[in-house]
């Protein structure tokens, strides 16, 4: 419900700015079996592959999770754990969580934001959290408006595309990372030759 409200607001803002937003929803409960398989074997099933392609093509993300036992859903964290570390570089992201009590309000900033910082995304400044009593509170609407505008502006700026076009080589990528889009790895190195079964060059000591 929280993700739906944010998505609707981003769409409204886009229309006001003479733009359109196409929304693709990834329901992780439908991927639960494939997430588990990828977690223990690194094998991606067809639904996971489709989800990864959706993320790779996205200009921005809205990531929402329920809170269980003072932490975001394990299904959500497992999903992002199995993704390529380079897949989401510089993509703008709204982080959101819901829980039955306001005691979990810091889960977004203390746990989710750390995960997405590791993935090198561009998380918007405003994080969203909704406890049971927040759904009818106008303050939640204000926070949603603020986060939606931040996401819309970042997507409009094309920041992620500019990073990829102008600075992609400054990141340390593994071969075939970012869903296979990063393949400009120097294969003519000792390490890569050894990995391919060849011989490394030996420098004589002086």
From TrEMBL:
The keyword rRNA processing does not apply. Keywords: Flavoprotein, FMN, Oxidoreductase. Residues 6-135 form the NADPH-dependent FMN reductase-like domain. The keyword Flavoprotein applies. Coiled coil: none annotated. It comes from the Bacteria. InterPro entries: Flavoprotein-like_sf, FMN_Rdtase-like_dom, NAD(P)H-dep_FMN_reductase. This is NADPH-dependent FMN reductase-like domain-containing protein. Pfam families: FMN_red. One of its GO terms (molecular function) is oxidoreductase activity.
């Amino acid at each position: 419900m929280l993700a739906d409200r944010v998505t609707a607001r981003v769409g409204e803002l886009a229309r006001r700015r003479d733009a359109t937003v196409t929304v693709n929803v990834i329901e992780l409960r439908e991927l639960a079996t494939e997430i588990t398989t990828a977690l223990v074997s690194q094998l991606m099933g067809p639904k996971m592959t489709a989800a990864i392609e959706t993320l790779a093509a996205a200009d921005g993300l809205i990531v929402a999770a329920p809170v269980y036992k003072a932490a975001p859903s394990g299904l959500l964290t497992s999903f992002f754990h199995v993704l390529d570390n380079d897949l989401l570089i510089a993509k703008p992201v709204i982080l959101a969580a819901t829980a039955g009590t306001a005691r979990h309000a810091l889960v977004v900033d203390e746990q989710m934001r750390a995960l997405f910082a590791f993935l090198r995304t561009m998380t918007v400044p405003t994080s969203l959290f909704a406890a049971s009593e927040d759904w009818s509170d106008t303050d939640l609407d204000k926070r949603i408006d603020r986060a939606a505008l931040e996401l819309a502006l970042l997507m409009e700026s094309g920041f992620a595309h500019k990073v990829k076009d102008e600075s992609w080589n400054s990141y340390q990528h593994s071969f075939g990372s970012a869903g296979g889009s990063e393949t400009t790895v120097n294969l003519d190195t000792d390490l890569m030759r050894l990995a391919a079964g060849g011989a490394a060059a030996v420098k004589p000591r002086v």
